[in-house]
Amino acid sequence: MDIRFLESLIAVSELGSIVATARAQGLTPAAVSQRIQVLERDLGLRLLDRQANAALPTPACRDLLPAMRQLVTQARALEQAAKPSEAAGPLKLGAISTVLTALLPDILEHMPKRAPKVELRITPGSSAQLYEALLAGDLDAALLVEPPFDLPDSLEAQVLRREPLCLLAPPACREKALARIFEDLPLLAYDPQSWGGAIAQRYLRDHGLKPVVLCELDALEAISALVARRAGAALVPDWPELQGASPLPDGAQYGRTVSLVTPRTSPRAANLQALRDVIEGCRRAGCTFLSGAPR
Questions:
Q1: pLDDT (tens digit, 9 = 90+) per residue, 171-204?
Q2: Assigned architecture for domain 89-160+258-290
Q3: Which keywords are on file for this protein (predicted)?
C-alpha cells in the first residue's frame, strides 16, 4: 500500500474536497481520484461519498482514519531514521501570537530554500499551551515566552529576543507619572495567568500600584488597539510591532524572554537544525524580531 495514497485520502477527509487536496499536494484532481480508487479497490471498501463540490469520508473510512494516520506517521519516521542527516518530513512548530506576525513569515519564506523537503506545520497558542504540547510530544519545537521555572533536562532553549516591560498609554498621558496615569485610566491587563502577564503583574505589585482593571487579555495586539482607542493604559513587553510605547526606568528587570524551545534529543534532529539555521540566517539578514538576540 502506497503511503502517498493514504496521505491523499487523509487530506481529502480533512479538506472535504478532491480539488483542494490536489491543489495542496501539487497534483491534478484526476490523480487524487485515482489514488482513492486504488485504495478502495485494495481495501474492498467505498471510502468517500462524492458530491458535486465535496468529498466526505464514509463511516467505514472514518473508522480507519486513525490507523491510516498512524501508518503514515510511522512510515515517515522510518524514512527519517534511515536518513538521520537529511532534513525531510513534517516539522510541527508552535508559536505565540506575536511571533506569528513577526518572525514566522521570515521562517516560512526561507525554510523551503534551506530544507525543501521539510513540511512545516504551524500550531498557534499561548506559551503554556505550547509548552505542554511540547512535553507531550505533540510539537517538535515551540517559539514561546520562557516559563517562570527551570526547563526539564529533556528540553533546551535558545534565546531569540528579550523584551523589556514598557508603558502603553494614549499620547496625552505619556509624560505623567505612572501612578497618575492609572488614577486617570483603567488598566488593560496583560492576562496575569499568562507567563508574560505574570511579569507585568509583578511589576505592579513591586511598585505598589493598584489600578482599576478594565479587562484581562492574553492578546497584545488587542491591548494595543484598545489603548489606541483611549480605553485605558497597559504594561506590556516591547514586542516587535508595538507602536507608541514608552520605556519604564526599570523595565528591563521585568522583561520577558522569547525562545526557541526544543527537545535535547529528537527523531527530527535534522529538521530542527534546519530551523535553527534559518533563524540564524534571519538574524544575520537583520530581521527586526531578532535585532536584540544574543549571538
A1: 888 778 899 999 999 999 999 999 999 999 999 9
A2: 3-Layer(aba) Sandwich (3.40)
A3: DNA-binding, Transcription, Transcription regulation
